[in-house]
Amino acid sequence: MSDPIRRIALALLAAASLGGCITSDDGGTARDGGDAVQPFPANYRSEIPAFLRSYLNDPAGLRDAAMAEPVQRPLGGRVRFVSCVRFTPPSGKPQELAIVHVNGRLDRVAGNVQELCTGVVYAPFPELEKLSR
Fold this sequence. Notes:
The chain has helices at 3-18, 44-55, 113-116, 126-129; strands at residues 63-68, 71-75, 78-88, 95-102, 105-110, 122-124. By secondary structure, it is α+β, with helices and mostly antiparallel strands. Strands 1, 2, 3, 4, 5 and 6 form a 6-stranded antiparallel sheet that branches. The protein has one domain. β4 and β5 form a beta hairpin. Helices cover 27% and strands 29% of the residues. The two termini are 16 Å apart.
């Protein structure tokens, strides 16, 4: 697959995974299954790099990338799986993100990273260091 086609395909994948992200007043999403037991996000290792490729202004050159296994955390009065990711962009200031999964799929980036990612165990995530524009 040629590089422009690959970029378009990845952008479409990221857009499709975020297509239902309509935030409601309680911090959840309008179509998040309510209080139903949430399935484990089985494809999180492939969804997160695809999402970050479009979420970050310049995903190339990330260093020290690490991610924690998804853990269940209370969020907006509901229990959701959250993946914590950290990395250092070329600008040099380390970043940490809390990515929320709903119904087993990547849903959004949460704002309260410190609270959601407390106590998680990070492991190297080299897939992020291989991202390019």
